[in-house]
Amino acid sequence: MKKIFQVIVVFLFLLLNLSFFKTNYTNAYSILNTVNLDNADNEKLIKVDPSVQFQEFDGFGIAISGWANAVGTFEYKYLKRIAKRLFDTNEGLGLNVVRYGIGTGFYTDLNKRKMLIEAKNNGVNIFEAFYENPPRWIIGQKNTNLKKIHIKKERYKGFADYLVKRLKIYKDYYGITFDTLSPIYQPSYIKNDNVRDNSNLYKYFFSKKQQEKILLEVFKSIKANGLETKISSPDEKSVDLTFSSFSSYNQKVKDCIYQIDTQTYDGLNKVRLQNLAQSNCKNLWVSEYCDNDETGLSMALKIIDDIKKLRPKSWIYKCALDAEKGKGFFDTPLSNNSTDFCYKINKKYYAMCNFSKFIRPKNTFIAIDDSYSLACIDKKNKKVIIVTVNSDMKDKNVTYDLSKFKNLGYRVLAYRTSLDESFKKIDNISTSDKKLNVSLKAKSINTYVLDGEYKGDLSFNPNKYYKIMNNSNGLYMSCYSMKEGSNLILCPKNKKRLSYTNEEFEYLNNENLNLDAYKKEHNIKNNEHICQWQIIGIGNGYFKLINRCSGLAAEVHGGYWLPNIDIIQNRNAFEKGSQQWKIIHKGYGNFIFINKRSQLSMDIKNILKDKNDEKKLIQSNYNRGKKSQLWSIIN
Q1: What phi, psi does 605 have (nearest 5°)?
Q2: pTM of the prediction?
Q3: CA distance linking residue 593 with residue 544, whole number of Å
Q4: Rounded CA gap, 210 and 160, in Å?
């Protein structure tokens, strides 16, 4: 009997809470007039929002490295044919960025240099030099236990002068000015073997102190030789290694670096690296990526994910041509023993066509609320460009909402690359009522280009930082730690700096950061950075809030729909509704923040009873007269 009574009590409790939740949810829904609560990936309607504008693109590119050495041994007409396929805007991919691998000797670069010259002749206008392996003469004794190779102390300046002299030769004799130089390549990445077989080159590991010494010496040498080339670094193999390496540099070294280069083979927290680059006012490139998927789908998905999360100025593919099936844009034996040069164009080449032939230099990326799509505008020619990947095994229909554009075109230029199509033009695609309805074929990459321009006001600038002040007390929304899952708070006015908890020291150690350098820098800057936020539009009327100091996103803990749930910071995830906020202007500079998943309002709550103590952020039911739910956004 007692158990039956307990079951009845629990049932009544749940029933009352469900009724309470439904009433409050319906109230919030009617107040805010929000029309769709589903996850964006499950919606058929994809909104394109030109009021949210990201980076202006410099272009897609290719690395001229070992493959070009092989091509350079064939007759020049074959080399020119490959160059045309890569760089010509009409007959080829239209790649306008080149990353050139400087070899160990000027004469050993002879064959590869032919492709560099042809790239320039075909319109390439951005050049970066990178150095993959240091020559043996600068290497000291190898430490076999740590798999490190140390540069002799007296050779740092010699190595820097060696690199810069090479740049000067290319400028004086070939008219090629390298815009940037990446002097170290994957410095923290250790392979199983330190020494390459049948080669006088070492595969090396540079400590952070070694990296700093090299970068400073290269900077000095560039200035001494009167070159305008700028330094890019650290060029790590993963975004997480790039983050930890750059973060560990002292400020003097950071000031020498113009551009953060990162490869995107590994690593998860791309938004954190983007935030680091923006916070330090650095250009950001995806300097290298390569895969063995001949279809090009893996590459296409990587391009979209990298551009949406890292917001790079350029995106570089590593291998144009290779004997390994599927790795390059072309397959060839890479041997000059044959009397004729033959190659096969991979599907990956046509997949790149869907991007590089339409997303051109000076285009500006804009918000689109779909994880598998990119959108940009060509302001000069008044064009809208959308590239979408359907990686599913079945076709699907989508509708693009283009209602914010003016002078929208009716006819749409469309191209598709799929398992049985190679950059095929698709006819009879048109808009209707400012919407574009299309069918995305299974395993396909789709590009749509149409006339359109945007003349309205811009939303919050994702390339700036804002302070978010609570209007009930004048305190700023802040973080107290770099740790994922930590609470967001309102920082008291007498709080001097970001505190370092035991958990944070453990986190920083795991990230291999230089703790002394990190603390020294952040003691100066944290008072400002912990309360500065990127406000990044997604394209569906919602925004992400990314903290400048931690690089993490504001999120309702656990994605719960109930009031009084904490608001924390966590790793950015595009699809998470609990990280998306509708920002509604209530007049007189007052804003409210409504979470997409819960439809509840951002609010505050005292951590302790003392009203002067820290206040944590929570979500609560929207209350029109509640001042603690009103916020000012300060530029």
Answers
A1: -150, 135
A2: 0.86
A3: 11
A4: 13
